[in-house]
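User: Continuing from earlier, I have the next pair ready.

Assistant: Great, send them over.

User: Here they are, in order.

Assistant: Folding the first of the pair now:
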Amino acid sequence: MSENKPTILLVDDEDGIIASLRRALSDFNATILSANSGPEALTLLSEHEVALIISDQRMPKMTGVEFLHRSRESQPDAVRILLTGYADIDAVVAAINDGAIAYYLNKPWDNNLLLSRVKESLELYTIKSENRNLLQLTTKQNDQLKELNESLESRVAEQTEEIRERHQELADSFMQTIKTFSTMLELRYREVGSHSQRVGALIKRLARSLDLQGTEMQDVVVAAYLHDIGKITVPDNIVSKPPEQYTPSDRELLAKHPEVGQTLVYQISGFEEVGVLIRNHHENYDGTGYPDRLVEQQIPLGSRLIRVADSFERFAFAHGYPNKDTLREATAHLVRNSGTKFDPELVKRFIECDGANEFTFEDIAQKQVVDPDSLSENMTIAADVYTKNGMFLVPKGAKLSKGMISRIRKIAKVDPIPEMIQVIIEAKATKKESAHV
């Protein structure tokens, strides 16, 4: 069968019947083949891809039902119509029940009904063909993925030490990719610094205090960086408004962002749990949140963690970088809403692990301004870093690692940093955690 022109096979031992069928089907843009017996038709099926088979029931050597059964071996997707002029209903019903035929018509047939059935059959075959092609593509991709996985497993077995040495580099690259996704959103929402990076830093501190590890730890950190990714679909006219000017319809649209975010990350294989955490990060502990009004332990732990960190950060940074008083007020906000909006146990853990200290920086250290080539490990960024084109690179308070410095230098080569980078040479000794995740 050509790409746009299907093939129809007519099978009848009477040439007159075949001629009548050809005339009836002349308006279809189709290639029409014909045979006078089942065996002859089977030969044609071995040579041509056929979309539709129309066969008479009573023929010498092989009945229509027998032939249509046999035809499935070489053309399983072809649609089959049986023509019968005899009271052979039992064979017809049996053929319908086991899938050998899709329709049957009595002879002499009604032309309008015949044309309708042919049209439906060709449409059905097109759908089958598309599904088959999609399945073949999926199978091919799965096979390629399987081969890749097998190759990776073999390499891990043969070069364990090399993989261990590169593990941290790959992990850093993965997290930088996640941060890039969150930065794309924050280029639209020009908040103070980087909301998602700060939430990510808080989540890592909280998750460590709960001894989360492995995939569970990774999923909640990734979800923290991407928790607001659904907002990327919000129209510009709403993005540009300050929150106090939102209309009820604006708020209704914004309230859909957890569900939209889940849908977006579901496109990434292995991010199913990340999507669930994003969907539920606005659920309240008492069941008054959205979108599913989950309550207490029904809300995934990662979503409850993000709820605490997200709310603390928004409260603390509502009017710029916070001082100690603002951070205390933000912590008090968590306590006041403990048991209603927030999981009380997680609020307690937030206070115990000194979450507010994530954003506490003393001015006792020496500040300098340097260019990207002069950066060194353990310097602390003293002011948000942006490129000339407005890309957010590093938030205030981030403690530089080797990987971060390499990334800053690479990006600066293609998108320069217009101002020198402010850094703290000696950060406060008691600050053990970093804003870098």
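And the other member of the pair:
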Amino acid sequence: MNPAPHQTRLIALDWGTSSLRAYRLGAEGQRLELRALPWGVMQLPDAGDGENAGFEAAFEQACGDWLQAAPGTPVIAAGMVGSRQGWCEAPYLEVPLAVGQIGGSLASLRNRHGQLIHIVPGLMENSQLPNVMRGEETQVVGVLSLHAQQGQAADILIGLPGTHSKWVQIRHAETQNEVRHFDTFMTGEVYAALCGHTILGRGMVAGDNDTGDAQRSFERGLQVAQTAAGQAGVLSTIFSTRTLGLTGVLDGTGQREYLSGLLIGHEIAALRGMLQAQQRLPAQVMLVGEAGLCERYAQALRAYGFGKIEVAQQATERGLWQLALSAGLLHT
């Protein structure tokens, strides 16, 4: 059944490396429909010859019928679709910058049927050790939209745990928010690599991580960075995953949970140290991501003395809606 044309206000795409999520949004950004497809920019459908044939095919599968039912609906996309490997490069904006500038800097393209597609730029901090994000900036905008609805206006820290965890410092100045600085930790990717491709994974087994023993193993790992031995750094302490198995302290499931806690603990300890050195410890931390992973990070943040912690819901679609509004794509 086709959607009623008057219901659809915006088609919003979260188009990453490995997947494509399409949202059909109605009045005030209400989610009317969601589709999840396996067509990330690095694994597009086989659609024959043509430079952008895969992107065209994936786009039509994601939302072609929505556009047929509601022609003229604006389309906005965020994520790796705007990278050099994507459909159309949306150049990075340099940090620090006012959050409101993001919606005014969209790139655009037309597909083979003439549909205009607006693409959100990523952010770059061009320092001695450059840092980039692409896709997370949209979630940041969504979190700040939720924060504003709650009537809050203060400097906050936004955490986006995942394969490459991002920590974004937001400064509230007068009537606008500014992305001041952000850091990246490759914790998730390092964890997967250590489990799958090093000797640490030899003693591990997959198991129920909701048991009391698993939780205690995770907590044990969390605390390592706070110990005297933990001062040697993560490259030294990760070997304890194996030795605690050899000495019988941890079983196979426990070793996996311990390593997760150890890596997250080192990440949060390093983050706290940097924030203290900058004198920027936040009053509030907002987390965005998969629920189970956010809970692990919330536990770690509490263990390392961070204050109020909240998990934001539907940050991506909120952000895409807000960016479309600020870009003038929607009539209020």
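Worth noting for the second one:
The CA atoms of residues 298 and 309 lie 7 Å apart. The chain has a mean pLDDT of 94.
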